[in-house]
Amino acid sequence: MSKLWGGRFRQGLDESAKLMSYSLDVDCQLAGYDLLVNRAHARALMVKGVLTEDEFGKIEACLADLDQGFDTDLDAFLGDDEDIHSCVERLVTERLGDLGKKMHTGKSRNDQVVTDVRLFCKDACDAIEGQLLALMESLYQMAVTHINVPFPGFTHMQTAQPVLFSHHLLAYFEMLKRDVGRIHHAFEEADVCPLGSAALAGNNYGLDRYLIAGELGFSQITQNSMDAVADRDFMLELLFANSVIMTHLSRLSEELILWSSPIVNFIAIGDNFTTGSSIMPQKKNPDIAELTRGKAGRVLGALTALQHIIKGLPLTYNRDLQEDKVLLFDSVETVLISLECMAKMLPTITLNRQVIDDQIKTGYSLATELADYLVKKGVPFREAHDITGNVVLDAIDQKLGLEKLSLDYLRSIDARFEADVFESLTVDAAISAKDLVGGTATRQVQSQLDRIKETFKW
Ligand code: ARG
Fold first, then answer.
1. For ligand 1, what atom is nearest to the CA of residue 23?
2. N or C: which terminus of the chain has fewer CB atoms within 10 Å of its end residue's CB?
3. 334 and 191, same structural domain?
4. How many A from CA of 245 to the centre of ligand 1?
């Protein structure tokens, strides 16, 4: 079949221009959606009498046939086509002759491609939500397993206050819960049908756009044909949601990398999610976490790249927009595999409890408890902070933990210290004192776990 737009040209495309512009190797991922879109459009043409019932029946059967064929071996169907839309039209025309040439009546690749892509985005959102939930469940289970394990909490990478390890894990749960919300939003933005907008102005056939949208499973239709073919905001929304997901995964990865380093040695990641070195036999590298951190860069880049592509475009469709798909597909694929790996890697992690306990102690993470103790004795907090600061300084000089200091010494610093001070200077006391909603006390973390179980039925 001649090129879709061959009529007006005397010369074919230069090879280099072809290489630059043909997109089939990328947009063949839309093949299944393109068949659906063609069918919905053809049905609308039939309803308006542009195609007979018999003609529509033939087109529908041919598209169904191709769908089966694509499922078995898509590559076998791809030819020297500019893009997936030209490919499908060629295949139908090869099979149905002139009837195939009627299929594109009242339709443009401009509304077709954006309809295909919106369908892709909706499925991608469902898949990403599924993987987000899998990771959330993994975090939840890990938090249940380690509900009572104390862990050093950090600010500025300095030991700050003891927390429950489960509390730390559930912090990521919260992030992912918000990610699910962003993915839902991206789904809603994609769930609007642009078909019927044709090249930019709408078409001449008065097609029933609600019928088309209904068949394709869209809940709304676009309201302006020019916006419809030029808009990629919905894609930005998904790329943004993906970039936030990867930002979260990257932070978690960074912690896993740090914690599993021999310098810190809090955790060991399972063999099935680490790799060895070709030269250094002792190495156990956290490659999967590192790759997740690295891939975050790519996913963040996709958002920026698409926004740059769009920002200079006059209305309506410009070929620049073809560059959207390689970014979209890569972003979605990367997010899916990263979420899956993280969900499966977490359960392989074991904790080095002794090292963790030692770190909580050596880091003077109970200093705030000492200040809070004085507050209970009526000392204004700022003064209590000062007094405690002096105590910590002495303890560092003497290389002693706070709980190892003598009562006589403490009373020499401030007479308001009494024997019960040592009750506050335990990790357990520090943790259970944070007993308010959102705090790290076991009671609070447990009720957070209960709420999660109730909501997600895990
Ligand atoms: N391959 C094109 C894309 O992905 C399809 C639309 C082409 N439209 C056109 N007028 N050349 O954007």
1. 1
2. C
3. yes
4. 30
Spell out the SS3 assignment of 287-318: HHHHHHHHHHHHHHHHHHHHHHHHHCCCCCCC
Same domain, 81 and 133: no
Domain final residue, candidates 323, 353, 383:
353
> 408 with 271, same domain?
no
* Atom number, ligand 1, closest to the C-alpha of residue 27: 4
- Residues touching ligand 1 (Cβ under 6 Å) are 23, 27, 83, 109-110, 113, 317, 319, 321-322
Domain, as residue range, for 339: 110-147+161-202+220-353
Tell me: pLDDT of 443 over 80: yes
pLDDT of 361: 85
Weakest mean pLDDT among 55-64, 208-217, 415-424? 415-424
What pTM was computed for the model?
Answer: 0.95
- Helix orientation angle between 287-311 and 324-345, rounded to the nearest 10 degrees: 160
Residue 101 Cα to ligand 1 middle (Å): 18
What pLDDT is stored for residue 2 in this prediction?
56
Q: How far is the CA of 113 from the centre of ligand 1 (A)?
A: 7
Catalytic-residue membership of 156 = yes
Residues 167 and 274 in one domain: yes
Q: Are residue 170 and residue 47 in the same domain, yes or no?
A: no
CA dihedral 204→210→216→219, nearest 10 degrees, is 140
Domain assignment present for residue 7? The answer is no
Going by alpha carbons, the residue nearest to atom 2 of ligand 1 is 322
Number of domains the chain contains:
3
Residue 1: pLDDT above 70? no
Closest CA to 249 of 305, 286, 284, 291: 291
User: In whole angstroms, what is the distance from residue 338 CA to residue 36 CA?
Assistant: 30
**Residue-level pLDDT at 313:** 98
**Taking residues 104-124, what's their average pLDDT?**
98
Residues 339 and 129: their CA atoms lie apart, in Å, by: 10
Structure tokens at 142: 């890990």
CA of 84 to the centre of ligand 1 (A): 10
Catalytic residue check, 277: yes
